[in-house]
UniProtKB/TrEMBL annotation, chain A:
<dbReference type="InterPro" id="IPR000515">
    <property type="entry name" value="MetI-like"/>
</dbReference>
<dbReference type="GO" id="GO:0055085">
    <property type="term" value="P:transmembrane transport"/>
</dbReference>
<feature type="transmembrane region" description="Helical">
    <location>
        <begin position="278"/>
        <end position="301"/>
    </location>
</feature>
<feature type="transmembrane region" description="Helical">
    <location>
        <begin position="12"/>
        <end position="30"/>
    </location>
</feature>
<keyword id="KW-0813">Transport</keyword>
<dbReference type="Pfam" id="PF00528">
    <property type="entry name" value="BPD_transp_1"/>
</dbReference>
<dbReference type="GO" id="GO:0005886">
    <property type="term" value="C:plasma membrane"/>
</dbReference>
<feature type="transmembrane region" description="Helical">
    <location>
        <begin position="104"/>
        <end position="127"/>
    </location>
</feature>
<dbReference type="InterPro" id="IPR035906">
    <property type="entry name" value="MetI-like_sf"/>
</dbReference>
Automatic annotation (TrEMBL), chain B:
<dbReference type="InterPro" id="IPR000515">
    <property type="entry name" value="MetI-like"/>
</dbReference>
<feature type="transmembrane region" description="Helical">
    <location>
        <begin position="204"/>
        <end position="229"/>
    </location>
</feature>
<dbReference type="GO" id="GO:0055085">
    <property type="term" value="P:transmembrane transport"/>
</dbReference>
<feature type="transmembrane region" description="Helical">
    <location>
        <begin position="132"/>
        <end position="156"/>
    </location>
</feature>
<keyword id="KW-1133">Transmembrane helix</keyword>
<keyword id="KW-0472">Membrane</keyword>
<keyword id="KW-0813">Transport</keyword>
<protein>
    <submittedName>
        <fullName>Peptide/nickel transport system permease protein</fullName>
    </submittedName>
</protein>
<feature type="transmembrane region" description="Helical">
    <location>
        <begin position="91"/>
        <end position="112"/>
    </location>
</feature>
Length: 320, 282
């Protein structure tokens, strides 16, 4: 098992490098001028001279040849430095990291809601004997995936804050202000979990071992929770990396709907101001999330499923 | 009558739709929205840009189906007129994913070797960053506006298309008819255009219909965040955003435009599901 670790770490580094390169190509090589955006040259501000623009460009290192720019930025990024925010002059990495805790609190709670509700829908939908209930539960995830999250957030504010007065509508203070944003984030994520887990459960229920266990006299509940669920939950684990990325991305919309501080707000205003260093820092952070979680899942897999431990070693030995 | 399909087939056809009221309703929603995009004046005679200040913030009524906003503009008229821009952006984004993705997949699958590896690694990278962040980065670089939003969403989603196209090309490439054409001396480009492309495009086109719903959601999300059309021009996402300040007093301003987006997404998902397989099974 230990054989696989260095190789996986190397893969993770490659993904991070690739995400950096992709964001460099998009942000620094595509046409569009952040300097003009900063100096306000576009709208009405006719006081910007060519000399101002040139000075600003030189200060940001945008004058160097592309290869030199790329090299310099890659070396800096490897040390966690993405440059200064064009809009505020703050260090982009600090700006993003300071916003992280607030976002983690809603994404964490959102993930919890998503796992609980998505899981409940999948388990109940496959356990029940009522065809109607099972069909109804199976139709919920596609519905959750079809509703625009920004609109769902606003509807929740409408109902729970203004009509019922249960929770504060906006802002970042207190646990009660976390609930609605977390529900909004959980909706699409929970839908994915519900769909994947239900499918996985159905596959497992068709396996021959289910009949064997039933024949030995185990009850349906015991088969469902003791055997089938344990086997079905494992494949769903591979989703974690993707889901975390989705939650982080979803925070852009959720935080702007609920006027909360966090990575999403930082991203949205950075995009508005065409603040390239900040946007790049966010993208690399998202890739880092994805990579680290996948790494953890990969390493946990053999621990949770002893059958895989054998397979991984076999793979490593044969050099695949 | 005799030159048409036999009555039995007609009855079967009718039965197929009668047993699926949801599918028929979805079709109706899509037809209605398309008509709105092409000829908005068919459904509303009110001006989507200039309001009547005396009628500001009125609730839904017979005169104003979806109510009016803070400057007295009819919300229904704005939703109807917004259809053109929102749908055009959606279609453009799906076309970008389809054409660019299919081209990359075709290139990778047909050339093989290092071209294949290179293209597929680029696709891997595109998939390692959440698509909304990717489209936000593209919007940052390209600038704002409906067209740029559509391109950004399209590029962010092209990876799936490239993967599927490549897999299909690899499957078709080994076919006996491809070998026969090659042996008969048809040039590689000819084989590609005449045999491989037509036989591998089907599943990719189905994927295109399946991704319409997601595209509507992503385009409207970016428009909600304010990166789409400039304010007075109606777009579905920005209409929802416009009602944010009036949640407590004018619920209709956010509720109806949002419901429209949800209805369109549900309808396209239902129809693409039918296209994906239900139809063939009858």
């Amino acid at each position: 098992m230990t054989n696989g670790v260095p190789r996986r770490l190397a893969q993770a580094v490659v993904v991070l490098w690739a995400a950096f390169t992709l964001s460099f190509v998009i942000l620094y090589l595509l046409p569009g001028d952040a300097v003009l955006a900063k100096l306000g040259g576009g709208e009405g501000g006719s006081t910007v001279t060519a000399a101002d623009v040139a000075r600003e460009r030189a200060a940001l290192g945008l004058d160097d040849p592309v290869v030199v720019q790329y090299g310099k930025r890659l070396v800096a990024a490897a040390q966690g430095d993405f440059g200064r925010s064009i809009a505020t002059g703050e260090d982009a990495t600090t700006l993003v990291l300071n916003a992280l805790p607030s976002t983690l609190s809603i994404t964490g709670l959102g993930l919890l809601f998503a796992v609980v509700f998505g899981g409940a829908i999948a388990i109940l939908g496959t356990y029940t004997r009522s065809r109607l209930l099972s069909q109804f539960l199976a139709s919920l995830p596609p519905l959750g995936n079809s509703l625009p999250p920004f609109w769902v957030g606003l509807m929740l504010i409408q109902v729970f804050s203004f009509d019922l007065g249960l929770v504060p509508a906006l802002g970042s203070d207190g646990f009660s202000s976390l609930v609605l944003p977390a529900v909004t984030l959980a909706l699409p994520t929970g839908a994915i979990i519900g769909q994947v887990l239900a499918k996985s459960l159905r596959t497992q229920l068709d396996e021959p071992y289910v009949e064997v266990v039933l024949a030995k006299g185990a009850g349906r509940a015991r088969v469902h929770f003791g055997h089938v669920l344990r086997n079905a939950a494992l494949p769903a684990l591979t989703l974690v990396g993707v889901l975390a990325g989705n939650l982080l991305a979803g925070s852009v919309i959720t935080e702007s709907v609920f006027s909360r501080d966090g990575i999403g707000r930082v991203t949205a205003s950075a995009v508005s101001a065409q603040d390239i260093p900040v946007v790049q820092a966010v993208i690399v952070l998202a890739a880092l999330f994805f990579v680290v979680l996948n790494l953890v899942v990969d390493l946990l897999y053999p621990v949770l499923d002893p059958r895989l431990a054998g397979r991984v070693t076999a793979k490593a030995v044969s050099g695949v | 009558m005799s030159s048409l399909a036999p009555p039995n087939a007609v009855r079967q056809e009718l039965g197929f739709y009668l047993r699926r009221p949801g599918l028929v309703l979805s079709g109706a929603v899509i037809v209605f929205v398309l008509l709105c995009a092409v000829a908005p004046e068919l459904f509303t005679s009110q001006d989507p840009i200039a309001g009547v200040p005396a009628e500001r913030l009125q609730g839904p009524s017979a005169a104003h189906l979806f109510g009016t906003d803070e400057t007295g503009r009819d919300v229904f008229a704005r939703v109807v007129h917004g259809a053109a821009l929102s749908l055009r952006a959606t279609v453009l984004s799906v076309l970008v994913s389809l054409i660019a993705g299919a081209a990359l997949g075709l290139l990778a699958g047909s050339r093989g070797g290092w071209v294949d590896s290179l293209v597929m690694r680029v696709v891997d990278v595109l998939q390692s960053v959440p698509s909304i962040l990717l489209s936000l980065a593209l919007v940052t670089a390209l600038g704002f506006g409906t067209t740029n939003v559509a391109i950004a969403v399209g590029v962010a989603n092209l990876a799936t298309f490239a993967r599927l196209m490549r897999a299909e090309v690899l499957r078709v490439r080994t076919g006996v008819f491809v070998e026969a054409a090659r042996a008969a001396g048809v040039r590689w480009t000819g084989v590609l255009a005449r045999h491989i492309l037509p036989n591998s495009l089907g599943p990719v086109l189905v994927l295109a219909t399946l991704s319409f719903g997601t595209a509507v959601l992503e385009v409207s999300a970016l428009s909600f965040l304010g990166y789409g059309a400039t304010p007075p021009t109606p777009e579905w996402g920005s209409l929802v955003a416009g009602g944010r300040g009036f949640l407590a007093t004018a619920w209709w301003m956010t509720t109806f435009p949002g419901l429209t987006v949800a209805a369109v997404v549900l309808a396209t998902n239902r129809i693409s599901r039918a296209l994906d397989g239900e139809r063939r099974l009858g």
